[in-house]
Design goal:
There is one protein chain. The chain is α+β, with helices and mostly antiparallel strands. The protein contains 4 helices and 6 strands; from the N terminus they run αββββααββα. The protein has one domain. A 6-stranded antiparallel beta sheet has the order 1-2-3-4-6-5. Strand 3 and strand 4 form a beta hairpin. Helix 3 packs antiparallel against helix 4. The longest helix has 15 residues. It is elongated. It starts with 11 loop residues before the first helix and ends in a 20-residue tail after the last helix.
C-alpha cells in the first residue's frame, strides 16, 4: 500500500469522488454530517454519517466511509473501497424471522444493481438482536434491531462516478428504515423510536 500523501494534494480520481459526495442531492429525510475519516486505513479517505428522520423521529442511521489507494489494493480488487454501517429498530417478530439476514443483505445488493453501480468484492454481515426485559423492567417494551455492516469495491473511472453508489447507499438507508424508495409511506417493518448507535 502506498504511503499517505501530504494534506492538500489529492489524486484526481479521489478528488472527483469527493466532489460527487459533496454534490449529491440527498432525500430531504436524510440528514448528513461529515465525519473525521479513520486514520491509517488508506492513504485517502472521506466519511459521512446519516440519520433518516421522519415526522421528527430518527428511525435509522448509518455511516459511509470512502477509502482510496492510488496504488491499488489487492484485498479490495481496486483503488477504492466503500465501507458502511447501517442500523434501525425493527419489530421483535421481524427480528426473529430466519430470512431477515438474507433480506437485509439483498437490500444493498439490489440497490447497487438498480442504480447500475459497478462493484466487486462485496462482503459484510447482517445482525439482528432482541432484548427482553425481566424483573422490575419486565413491563418495558421489547427492543429489537437490525445492523448491516458491509463493504464493496466501487469500480470508478471516467465513465462511472461515485454518484450511483451514493444513490444505492441512500436506498439501503430507506430500506432499513422501512421506507420505499420514492415516497413517504412507511412499510410496517420498523417500530417507531430513535435508532441507537
Amino acid at each position: 500500500m502506498s504511503q499517505p500523501q501530504p494534506i492538500g494534494i489529492l489524486p484526481l480520481p479521489f478528488a472527483a469522488a469527493v466532489h460527487d459526495l459533496s454534490a449529491f442531492e440527498w432525500d430531504p429525510r436524510v440528514q448528513i454530517r461529515e465525519l473525521e475519516p479513520p486514520a491509517n486505513i488508506a492513504p485517502y479517505s472521506a466519511a459521512i454519517e446519516a440519520d433518516m428522520v421522519v415526522g421528527g423521529e430518527d428511525i435509522a442511521s448509518g455511516r459511509l466511509i470512502l477509502l482510496h489507494d492510488p496504488a491499488g489494493n489487492d484485498a479490495w480488487g481496486g483503488g477504492f473501497r466503500c465501507v458502511t454501517f447501517a442500523q434501525a429498530d425493527v419489530s421483535p417478530e421481524t427480528c426473529h424471522d430466519e430470512m431477515m439476514a438474507d433480506v437485509g443483505w439483498s437490500w444493498l445488493i439490489e440497490a447497487l444493481k438498480t442504480h447500475d453501480a459497478r462493484f466487486a468484492s462485496e462482503s459484510g454481515t447482517v445482525t439482528t438482536t432482541a432484548s427482553t426485559h425481566f424483573g422490575t423492567k419486565q413491563d418495558q417494551e421489547q427492543l429489537a434491531q437490525i445492523e448491516i455492516r458491509a463493504s464493496w469495491t466501487p469500480l470508478l473511472d471516467e465513465h462511472a462516478s461515485l454518484t450511483v453508489h451514493l444513490a444505492a447507499w441512500q436506498d439501503l438507508l430507506r430500506a432499513i428504515a422501512g421506507l420505499p424508495r420514492e415516497d413517504d409511506v412507511v412499510i410496517p417493518l420498523a417500530t417507531r423510536g430513535a435508532a441507537r448507535r
